[in-house]
Design goal:
- There is one protein chain.
- The protein is built from nine helices and 17 strands.
- By secondary structure, it is of the alpha+beta class.
- A six-stranded mixed beta sheet has the order 1-12-11-14-17-16, sandwiched between helices.
- Helix 4 packs across helix 8 and helix 7 packs antiparallel against helix 8.
- The longest helix is centred in the C-terminal third of the chain and has 19 residues.
Length: 496
């Protein structure tokens, strides 16, 4: 009999069983000693494509930024002092010397505002792979003080319809949680309040080394162009927990924003990079043309169509060798060293890419003994950033493999045509309508919410009959999305 599995995500709460707690992310591939066997395949008119690009860690070339000539460094023509009484300008005027810093080209790595534009080392961090039409705004490094309060202005133009905040820490620093601690709209509305992060209007995600925030991930308010203020947070403990706010710890955080144009009602597609681990459910050579995958893709498209979304171009990367042996079964999901997070680092194998990394594994076991059907690296995935602890979604294909032995393609399509869109919607910025223990809900006004978790503390679908039909219930029985949810999923940069 097919086992009923719950749909997990990269949870905001430490120790929560949905995805194993503490949101451990980080920005670099770290100590991978050797590259596993790698095949790259794509399906389309071009046939098979073998094209694996190098990583994105190239240093910024500033060699063309010539130092200003000596006569360009000096001051403007000095003002003339008033004539001295009884004298004339030729004999009484003096040169006024202006003392102060002189703007120079930005010098990467010194954590100084060399060009005096109010930003520190902007342009010195490799940008994400920016989807066509989106615009990357690098706000440089922000020094987070011990009490918080280091905000940066972001100018949002009239043509923008949403934006995705990407926070990263220094590779050389010990891993810390980073997140958007405070967000203020041009109108002055505080959409992320450091005193109440879980109840804030625009709830974000934190994680070790990387944090994201999709603006706006709620409904009922018009998006505002103008000057926004973004304040990063940094802490050892996870900030998205009930109770008093977590104090910030001093350090540097890089702040960047992907500005997204208004998309209207046009049909959008989501490109995918699929990584079968140890050949499950099938290796790349046969997966993308298999009847099961074609049926799953068709069902996923049918589920996403209600939001005018669909699966776009698909590439496939085999993960084999020692990595295949290690990650075929995911036995830990909590912490930066967990197998789940270490597997997500392997998404760098597909860089550069504007796709969503999707890892197929044979099983997922959380520390509490549960077996989620899928896990998203975070809520609102870091679009265009491969090789972080939050880069991708992981799908448990145990049921797929079991059903394939009997040729039950229709059942495979029914199951994974729900699981994959559910995790993709997390990646696109949507929370669970109601969490497993009914203690937390999304902030979209038109979604069904259930608060009675029963005597066992678990919100069963039978205890939330209407809510369980929504695709984003924690254990969904249906595939419906509300109007508010449909609007939010179209604001993320991975919808192209």
């Amino acid at each position: 009999m097919q086992k009923r599995r719950w749909l997990g995500w990269a949870v905001l709460l430490a120790g929560c069983s949905d995805a194993g707690g503490g949101e451990a992310f980080g920005p670099s591939l770290g100590g991978i000693a050797s590259r596993p066997p790698l095949d790259v395949w794509t399906v389309g008119d071009a046939g098979v494509l073998w094209d694996v690009a190098a990583g994105l860690d190239a240093a910024v070339d500033t060699s063309d930024l010539a130092a200003p000539a000596d006569d360009d460094v000096g001051l403007d023509v000095p003002p003339q002092l008033p004539d001295a009484p009884g004298g004339d300008a030729d004999t009484a005027s003096e040169t006024a010397i202006v003392d102060g810093p002189i703007a120079k080209p930005e010098s990467c790595g010194n954590l100084l505002d060399d060009d005096l534009d109010g930003l520190v080392d902007e342009g010195c961090v490799a940008p994400p792979d920016v989807p066509a039409g989106d615009v990357w705004s690098d706000l440089g490094w922000v020094q987070v003080p011990a009490g918080g309060g280091a905000g940066r202005p972001l100018q949002v133009p009239e043509w923008a319809g949403s934006f995705l905040v990407l926070l990263r820490q220094k590779d050389s620093d010990p891993l810390r949680h980073v997140w958007v601690r405070k967000l203020v709209a041009p109108s002055g509305a505080v959409l992320v309040d450091p005193a109440t992060p879980l109840a804030s209007k625009n709830r974000g995600s934190s994680g070790f080394g990387i944090g994201t925030l999709l603006v706006q991930n709620f409904d009922g308010a018009a998006f505002e162009p103008g000057t926004w203020t973004i304040e990063p947070g940094r802490a050892l403990d996870p900030p998205m927990v009930p109770g008093p706010p977590v104090p910030t710890s001093p350090g540097w955080v890089h702040l960047g924003v992907l500005l997204r144009p208004q998309v209207g009602s046009a049909k959008l597609t989501i490109p995918l990079d699929i990584y079968p681990v140890a050949g499950v459910p099938l290796p790349c050579a046969t997966l993308l043309t298999s009847p099961a995958w074609l049926a799953v893709r068709a069902q996923a498209n049918a589920t996403l169509e209600q939001a005018s979304l669909g699966v776009g171009d698909v590439r496939c990367f085999d993960i084999g060798g020692s990595d295949g042996d290690t990650f075929k079964y995911i036995d830990s999901v909590a912490g930066s060293d967990s197998e789940l997070r270490q597997l997500m680092l392997r998404s760098k194998l597909g860089a550069p890419s504007t796709a969503v990394p999707v890892f197929f594994v044979l099983g997922i076991s959380a520390e509490d003994g549960s077996e989620p059907a899928g896990v998203s690296g975070t809520i609102a995935g870091p679009a265009g950033l491969m090789g972080t602890h939050a880069s991708g979604i992981v799908i448990n294909t145990q049921d797929w493999v079991d059903l394939a032995t009997s040729g039950a393609v229709a059942k495979i399509a029914e199951t994974y045509g729900m699981v994959i869109p559910h995790e993709l919607c997390h990646w696109l910025g949507v929370n669970h309508t109601s969490e497993r223990d009914a203690s937390l809900h999304d902030l979209i006004s038109d979604t069904p919410q259930c608060t009675n978790a029963g005597t066992d503390g678990i919100l069963e679908p039978s205890e939330c009959s209407e809510g369980a039909q929504n695709l984003m219930f924690w254990m969904p029985l249906g595939t419906s999305l509300s109007a508010g949810q449909k609007a939010v999923v179209r604001r993320h940069p991975n919808g192209q």
